[in-house]
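Notes from the 1:1 (GR / supervisor)

We went over the backlog. Supervisor wanted to see one worked example end to end before approving the batch request, so GR pasted a single chain during the call. The sequence is below; no edits were made to it. Supervisor asked that the structure be written out right there so they could see what the output format looks like.
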Amino acid sequence: MQPYELTLTAAAEEIRTRRLSPVELVDSVLDRIARTEPSLQAYVTVTEERARESARAAERAAQRAAGTHGPLRGIPVALKDLIDVAGLATTASSRVRADHPAAATDSTVAARLAAAGTALVGKTHTHEFAYGLTTPQTSNAWDPDRVAGGSSGGSAVAVAAAAATFALGTDTGGSIRVPAALNGVVGLKPTYGLVPRHGVTSLSWSLDHVGPLTRTVEDAALVMSVLAGHDPRDPASLPTPSSADYRPPPGADLTGVRVGVPRNYYFEHVDPEVETAVRGAVEQLRALGATLVEVEIPMTPYIQATQWGLMVPEATAYHEQTLRSAPERYGADIRVLLEAGALMSAGDYLRAQRARTLMRQAWLRMLDEVDVVAAPTVPVTAVRTDQEVVVWPDGTSESVSDAYVRLSAPADITGVPALSVPVGRDGAGMPIGMQLLGRPLGEAMVLRVGHAYEESVPARGHAPVTAASGPRREAL
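Structure output shown during the call:
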């Protein structure tokens, strides 16, 4: 096995026991990036020298204090290019920021990762300003003719292809979990306010979350232990400590855990292969000792209207000045959404806020009855890059973006933690994800259940990388 193939947990152990140096690991990942980028285009920029210097610093630290460094020291990380890093431009994969100056300071999450000793190998592509679910400039790690998912598509693809040991993304309507599911990796959207967003470009401030994309659930837990904790510079930051340990207990025993299985919404208009895989994974949770409990998802007719009613006007407010001065710099799909937001009334926005409050209260009552809810992450696997509509067996259809956001939006609206875990592949070989949703600040439970499932199934390797068959769109 090559160093780039190691999970975060395995790499950390190899570094701790001196069987692998951070320099060797970073060099291996950088070589992997060089070989995969021509077909995947996951990265906006690759920071080779910065990564190597961080690796050398981690090596020196390990020599000075053997066995005392944290598990992220020397681990290669990629950051979605909404996240400020001092000395690097934050482009948001948009022509609007083609001449954007370098950030003067680190975002909170970048600073915490740097303090933990990680090695930044690059910044990854996002759907422009995170306002989409496909990341069109990036190829899916399993099939370059299919969408990567978004908006954290670059981060998910880099992790899936072993071109980063882990990565960070953002999630406003599913933008961590959707690409995680479509590329066969783990993606965690934490509780709203648990991970600070200071220094992260906003899409919709009342819905934005920052979280990890990893190859295993245990890896996600290790990253969360570094990211979580209060920061007064983020008005939504929760007063939580920065020293929590999110690592799940060893083993796969779920005795006493109540898993909610939705009787409505989450299994409606879902591809049969996705439903079969997710229901099979739920039965596996039962086999591990969990009790399955049917639950009714509340206020389902209002979910998508509430999501768009919050996100669209908030995004337009953020971009208001640039939209007036340089509208031609936005991609057509983003510009039309931003212009639509300008047409929404204050009454529409306030009604969406009221609906969100009622929905959150209803979800909290539902979650009183179970420890987690298990459901599909997305209703269909990665579609081909030229596909715009999903047609369901009953003859109804919806846009690809609506299909991908439909099952992920509830966790953003309510702010509850949600974890996407791979649970198989469809007949075309494309990954399928199961979503585990928990109570606010219930990360430990969703990680425990996800880890137990993961421990009970065969280990997964990284995605194969083949040459892309078609042209990719330029990012800037």
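Supervisor's comment: The two ends are 36 Å apart (CA to CA).
Batch request approved.
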